[in-house]
Structures are given as structure tokens and as C-alpha cells.
Amino acid sequence: MTLILRRVVLVRHGQYDEHDTGQLTALGRKQAATTALAFEGMRIDSMVSSTLIRAKQTAEIIAEQIGFPRVTHSALLCECVPTMLPASLRVKVDSEHVRQDRERADRAYERFFRPTKTARTDLVICHGNIIRFFACRALGVQPRAWIKMQSLHCGITEISVLPNGETRLASYNDTGHLPRPMRTMSNAAAKRD
Does residue 191 carry a pLDDT above 60? Predict the structure, then answer.
């Protein structure tokens, strides 16, 4: 008997201009193009990105390079702060904002990580925080653990969804496809780490 499962392959967007346009930098475009090479020859059934420009641009570059015909977009996949941040970060986040982000992240998880009747691979281009949150949900650990996970630009995370709805984290933040000089993280995260 063949195990039918859904593979959700998550890609964090490439490096972007954090202070002005939110668009990919030249390095971010190179990261996306290099990341596309990791998907050449892979059967991909759907490709979806968040509606934020950095994710859309990353998805467009990957889709064009691998010849994928259509990228859809979902606001459910936008960046979020799914739990209150530790006081040690010295970043104030409104509790209502966190509540709304958490609800949206939970809805995204329910939508993109449900079992399917046929084997499929979904490529999802989104953001570091929500990918970290999805990884915590897949592992069944406390959602607040997301803050302790590193997320590099164009890192690849893979989660398998079994027919009974159970999930398995197959890989997290894989950057082996990127040469070392192309492995970057956001400025805010770099200052924390």
C-alpha cells in the first residue's frame, strides 16, 4: 500500500530592503534564482506566496526559472508575530495585534497543512516568523518556541502531512543550496543573535 501524503515545501523570501521599498535587493534576487535550482525536476502541484512584495518577487523568480505556469497569493501567509515576544528583546508588540496574527497563522496552518486524497507537493513562499510557527505546529511544541529558531533568506523547510493529518518536519531552514556568502538573515535578527 502506497502512503499518500502532502509535501509542503516552504521557502522564506530573499533578502529585501528593510528600510524603504520592501522589494528584493540584488542579492535577494540572486538568492531566489539560486533557490529555484533546488526545485528543477521536482513535481510541483501548486505554488502560492504571501501577498507581500518580497515574497511575491521571490515566487515570481522561482516560478519563471522552473517554468511553473501560475503563482497564487494568499494574505494568510503574510508575516506575523504569533505569540508575545520575550521582554529581553525590548520590542513592544500590541497584544491585540498578536492575537489577530495568531488567528491568521492558525487559519493558514489549517488551510495549507490538511491531508489530501492524492500525493502532491505544494511550494509556499512566505516569511520567517510564519514558517517558524508552522514548524512548531508540525512538531507539536509550544508555539512560543518559534522565537528560538533561526530563519535565513531563501531557507527551505519541508513538512509532510500524512493521510491521518499527522505532520512530520522533514527539514528546517535548509540553505545547502546557497553558497555561504549568500546566506543572510534580516538586520533585526542579526542584531539579536
Answer: no
Q: Which residues contact 96 (CB under 8 A, 6 or more apart)?
A: none
For residues 119 and 104, what is the distance between their CA atoms, to the nearest angstrom?
26
Contact between 108 and 77 (Cβ < 8 Å): yes
Query: What are residue 149's phi and psi, to 5 degrees?
Result: -105, 135
User: CA 6 to CA 101: how far, in whole Å?
Assistant: 25
Backbone dihedral angles phi then psi of residue 16, each to the nearest 5 degrees: -140, 165
45 in helix, strand or coil? coil
Q: Residue 173: left if φ>0, alpha if ψ -120 to 50, beta else—which one? A: left
Strand blocks (E) in the chain: 6-12, 46-49, 72-73, 120-126, 156-161, 167-174
**Picking from 43-47, 48-52, 144-148, which range would have the lowest pLDDT averaged per residue?**
144-148
Specify the pairing of strand 156-161 against strand 167-174: antiparallel
